[in-house]
Amino acid sequence: MTPRACPFCRIYVADASIERCETCDVLLVSPRKLGPSPEERMAWESLPPDERPIPVSPFSHGRALLSLAALMGIVAYLMPWLEVRSPDRWILHGTDFGRKLFWPHAALAAWVVTVPTAMTRQSLGRLLASRAVLAVFALVPLVTLAVLYAKPPTHRLLNVQSTWLWGAALEVVASCVGLLAATRLGRGAQK
Length: 191
Ligand SMILES: [Zn+2]
Hints:
Layout lengths: L3 E2 L6 E2 L24 H9 L16 H15 L2 E7 L3 E4 H8 L3 H15 L4 H6 L1 H20 L10 E4 L1 H18 L8
Antiparallel strand pairs: 1-2, 3-4, 3-5
Helix pairs in contact: 2-4, 2-7, 4-6, 6-7
């Protein structure tokens, strides 16, 4: 039996047979339901809103949309990006571009660091300050694809024909969603 506490005087009671606080005559509750003590509340309220701690979470304070974009971007990187139809038919995934050219791996790296960066900002002020760098991370896959799109695979002698596929489109969508999410981080939480 875990100890319970009085929500009023905050005295802890280990004896499971006691249901009510002997002093206040109110039902004992789990210590987790106590909420912050008056001292903790005062310490909290003395901090400027921007410096108050926020939870380490991939979902709170507008971070859910950014996490979703990062997940979408990572999945899109593994999906087919380009179909080469001539001289031979083959499919290139994001990972194939990374293996061949190396620098497109930046798109994956940007998504991988996005979630830890966003979820570990420990105050609203720090989260707001991270907006710019997270927006840049979200832009990396978009720029990667723009460069690949501008310079698709060529061959010295043969005429290479290719078509962009849905994986690349999904990566572009992830970038746009990520960009939007980064600029909206911490919104509605300035209270
Ligand atoms: Zn009590």
